[in-house]
Amino acid sequence: MPITLVPLAAEHLPALQGLVTPAELAMVAADPNAFHYRAVLDGERCVGMVGLNRAGDPQIVAAIVPAERRKGYATAA
After folding, report:
1. How many angstroms separate the CA atoms of 54 and 68, rounded?
2. What is the pTM of this model?
3. How high is the mean pLDDT in each 10-residue block of the chain (77 residues)?
C-alpha cells in the first residue's frame, strides 16, 4: 500500500475531525521540536496521522480515521 507522510496542516483537519482539534494542531505548529506529526495520505486522501510526541515522556502516536482502520495504514506509516 503506497502512502505518503506530509506535515500535519489545517487542510487535513476535516478528515481528522474527532482525532485532532485546531488547538492541538496549534500546539504542534508552535513547538515543532516537541511534536513531529505527519498526516497519512492515501493518494490525495487523508486517512490519519502518525508522529512522535517528545513533550514530557516520549510517545509514538498513530490515529487512523474510523472508516479506514484495519487496512494497514498505521503499520505502513
Report:
1. 26
2. 0.84
3. 88 88 83 86 95 87 94 94
